[in-house]
Design a protein that fits this description.
Its cofactor is Fe(2+). The chain is mainly β. It contains two helices and 15 strands. It has a single domain, classed as Alpha-ketoglutarate-dependent dioxygenase AlkB-like (Jelly Rolls), CATH 2.60.120. The chain binds succinic acid and fe (ii) ion. The site of fe (ii) ion (FE2) has 3 residues, from loops.
Length: about 200
C-alpha cells in the first residue's frame, strides 16, 4: 500500500498507492476508454489548453468557448461516455471514504510541455464528496494553494501510482500542475503523463 500519507495543505497524498502491475492494467483500461471516447483538446475562452482530455462515467467534464460543464455525451461523437473502469473505481472505493461511487472520471493526458494552471474544482453540485486524483506515467510538479485565491502555495512531485485526495476543508483548494518531467517514467508508450480525476457531480 505504498509509503506513509503526506498532508499537502490538507490534500492527502498517498505515494505509491497503486503498484506497478496495477498501473499497467489501469493504463490498458484507459486506452479502452480513449478508444470509445476520443481524447480532445479543449479550447476555452482563454485559448487551447495544453492538456488533452476525455471522460468516462455518467457525466464527462467538457470545456469549450461557452465555458465549463458536465455533459452526458461526448461532444464530438454524441455517444454516452464509456463506463468508469473497475480498476479506477477500486482506487476511489479504497481512498474516498464515502459510500457513493463517482459520476465522473476525467482523463487528462499531458504530452510534452503540457501543464495546468491554478484552479479550483467547483463545477460539481455537492462539495461534500472528495475529489480523488490518480497519477500515471511521468512525474508532475503539483502545486497546492488555499481555498482563497492567491497566497502561499506548496508543491510536490507526483509520481506514477500516487493518489491525491482533496476532501473536507481541502475540497476547494486551488491547485495546478506546473510542469511534467519528460522521460521520468516508461509506463506510457511515447511518454507523458495521465491524470485521472474522479468526482461525484450529482
Ligand atoms: C486537475 O486538477 O484537473 C489535474 C491535476 C493533475 O493533473 O494531477
Ligand atoms: Fe483540478
Amino acid at each position: 500500500m505504498g509509503e506513509p500519507e503526506i498532508d499537502l495543505r490538507g490534500v492527502r497524498v498517498r505515494p505509491g498507492f497503486i503498484e506497478a502491475g496495477a498501473q499497467a492494467a489501469m493504463l490498458a483500461d484507459l486506452r479502452e476508454v480513449a478508444r470509445a471516447a476520443p481524447v480532445m483538446r479543449p479550447v476555452t475562452r482563454r485559448g487551447p489548453m495544453s492538456v488533452r482530455m476525455t471522460s468516462a462515467g455518467r457525466l464527462g467534464w467538457v470545456a469549450d468557448r461557452r465555458g465549463y460543464r458536465y455533459e452526458a455525451t461526448h461532444p464530438e461523437t454524441g455517444a454516452p461516455w464509456p463506463p468508469i473502469p473497475e480498476s479506477v473505481l477500486a482506487v476511489w472505493r479504497a481512498v474516498a471514504g464515502v459510500q457513493v461511487d463517482p459520476d465522473s472520471c476525467l482523463v487528462n493526458l499531458y504530452r510534452e510541455g503540457a501543464k495546468m494552471g491554478m484552479h479550483q474544482d467547483r463545477d460539481e453540485g455537492d462539495f461534500g464528496f472528495p475529489v480523488v486524483s490518480i497519477s500515471l506515467g511521468d512525474e508532475a510538479l503539483f502545486r497546492v494553494g488555499s481555498v482563497e485565491k492567491g497566497g502561499k502555495t506548496t508543491s510536490l512531485w507526483l509520481r506514477s501510482g500516487d493518489v491525491a485526495v482533496m476532501g473536507g476543508a481541502a475540497r476547494l483548494v486551488h491547485h495546478g500542475i506546473d510542469r511534467v518531467k519528460e522521460g521520468s517514467s516508461v509506463l506510457i508508450p511515447g511518454g507523458g503523463r495521465i491524470n485521472v480525476t474522479l468526482r461525484v457531480v450529482r
